[in-house]
Amino acid sequence: MEMQFNLLAFGLSILSVPLVLGLYVRCFRHQRKALEEFFGHRSVERYLQSGRRRWCRAVCVIIAFALLAVSVSQPRWGSQTEDVPRRGRDIVFLLDVSTSMLAEDLSPNRLSAAKEAISRLIDELDDEGGHRFGLITFAGRANLQSPLTHDYTFFRRKLDETTTDSAARKGTQIGDALRQVVEGFAGIDPSFTDIILITDGEDHDSLPREAAQVAATVGVVLHTVGVGDSVDGAQVPDPDKPGKYLTYRGEEVFSRMNPNLLREIALIGGGKVLVAGLEPADLVGLYYSEIAAKERRIIDAASTERPVEHFRWFVLLALILLASEMLIRDREVST
Description:
The protein is α/β, with parallel strands linked by helices. The chain contains eleven helices and twelve strands. The strands form four sheets. Strands 4-3-2-5-6-11 form a six-stranded mixed β-sheet, with helices on both faces. Helix 8 (208-218) runs parallel beside helix 9.
């Protein structure tokens, strides 16, 4: 493996070498001039016969500075295999796939925008590798799409495949979905698990507040994310009639996000509410503010190859040279 080092750090620190050399040259010149004025030319010539020792001391210092410059650049070559423990938490996404999530107040619709937000978080945490993610979709009933897994490729595929057809029954039963998750639908460990509920907040009398209380009692932290327009709402496309919108008793159906319900659920569940509204849901920000600092468990140990750092040897050689400089003395010359 070729040598790797920080070129910028080396370039800046190596500038100390010509600086030290210049200081020695100037010092020796001033020293000689002062001696000539004080002792005369012949005495100076005898004194300068010991100049080799002075330059040996100078060379020791100059080389030591060069070695320290190399060490600052953190030189690495070769590799070693290490077992690095992976630590992480479990994050379960509870995603609303009811028909109202087809509303187009977000581009291209609420469901697609929610899926994109989840994907951004997965991409952000991909390098850490220690977290497990689970995906549960719900409308009238909750369905497990992905159990808690480290296989992010599998998780992404199941997320991409999620549509409003991913629920067995129509409707929006937030409370029922929460209860199924807490009762072990995803095999969760409350101490290391966060649930992120992503929905427009429409609910058909499923007692979501009571379900959030059950989650809080068990110890699972519940965060809520609201998507969609909470003021004017948006029309809902009819999935069975392309180009048409849902109507009820001859009137067009408008779906409005319910932020108040989501705030209550998050408050009861001990989590944070993120009312994204018509903006992209910032799940990455939610993770770093609410989840990242929490205790993590060791999932397993992964073998990885790391380059071997050798800066210590350069520091040691520099210290040896500096010690040698202190031991070299100028030869005494009689006048």
